[in-house]
Amino acid sequence: MTNLLLEPLSFEFMRLALVTAILLGILCSVIGTYLIVQRMGLLGDVIAHAVLPGLAIAFFLGIDIFVGAFISGTLSTFVISWIQSQSQIKVDVAMALVFSGFLALGITLITVLKSKLDLHQFLFGDLLGVTTIDVWKTFAIAIIILLLVKLFYKELLFYTFDPLGAQAVGLPVNLIHLGLTAAITLTIIASMQAVGIVLVVSLLIGPGATAYLLVKELHQMMIFGAVIGSFSSVTGMYFSYYFNVPSGAAIVLVVSGLFILALLFSPSQGILTQPAVANRSLSILGQFKQSKKRI
Q: For 14-60, what is each residue's pLDDT tens digit?
């Protein structure tokens, strides 16, 4: 067992990948908690795909592609807010429109500009290809975002559960919204190389959703979600190493498996542990035993 745990650590690329995976597991879980509580899980998916036009344009201009991704991802949220404020269209419809529009624009720009951008890497990730510089970038983003969440936790908590009340007491709700958007976008950008655009939403939502089934308080969701996210990331990396499967997909499968277990067996919200289900199961078991005695 010790050899199974230590063998992957003998390779530098695995050590770098594991550190990155742990950082992203914590960061995505904390930020994803706000998306879950606000019932805005689709927003993460929208931003993840909305970065494509920025990637294409930045690559064509020869500037840092992550700067282009950040601008494009942030712009997509402003477009959603603008559509919602200027019409009677619901937010989910606006997000769906922006999602498809930005994705189509990104693919078109990559084709028209004849970009040599490795689209496959950004869509599906390459966690085993991270460098020391990538690890430090991820570490810096994680520290900054987590520190800001800690400093402004009370304001974020108030805004998350009662935005109208937060505005009434004088909190800068527009600035808070912009800050959350920036944090989500930076988290997605940091996760792109690891799990890719296609799978990043699962890492954003999965651990927090699993924690939501197990605890009640927001800070508890963050802590449990961070633990679940880190555990899933490390476990997925070991699966990737020993079973030769894509690392990003392996991490997401572990996240999904833990969510299903919580959905079935959560003490308070589990499908199989709710009183009605438990009593029904005991009743069926009792009937089975009586039938067996008669036979």
A: 999 999 999 999 999 999 999 898 888 788 888 888 998 998 899 88
Closest C-alpha to 45, from 190, 251, 185, 141:
185
Contact 270, 264 (CB under 8 A): yes
Single-letter amino acid code for the residue at 287: Q
Contact between residue 128 and residue 251 where contact means Cβ atoms under 8 Å apart? no
Q: What is the rounded distance in angstroms from the CA atom of residue 62 to the CA atom of residue 109?
A: 15
- Distance CA(143)–CA(16), nearest Å, equals 17
CA-angle at 235, arms to 229 and 240, nearest 5°: 120
The 3-state secondary structure of the chain, one letter per residue: CHHHHHHHHHCHHHHHHHHHHHHHHHHHHHHHHHHHHCCCHHHHHHHHHHHHHHHHHHHHHCCCHHHHHHHHHHHHHHHHHHHHHHCCCCHHHHHHHHHHHHHHHHHHHHHHCCCCCCHHHHHHCCHHHCCHHHHHHHHHHHHHHHHHHHHCHHHHHHHHHCHHHHHHCCCCHHHHHHHHHHHHHHHHHHHHHHHHHHHHHHHHHHHHHHHHCCCCCHHHHHHHHHHHHHHHHHHHHHHHHHHCCCHHHHHHHHHHHHHHHHHHHCCCCCCCCCHHHHHHHHHHHHHHHHHHHHC
pTM comes to 0.86
- The count of other CB atoms within 10 Å of the CB of residue 184 is 26
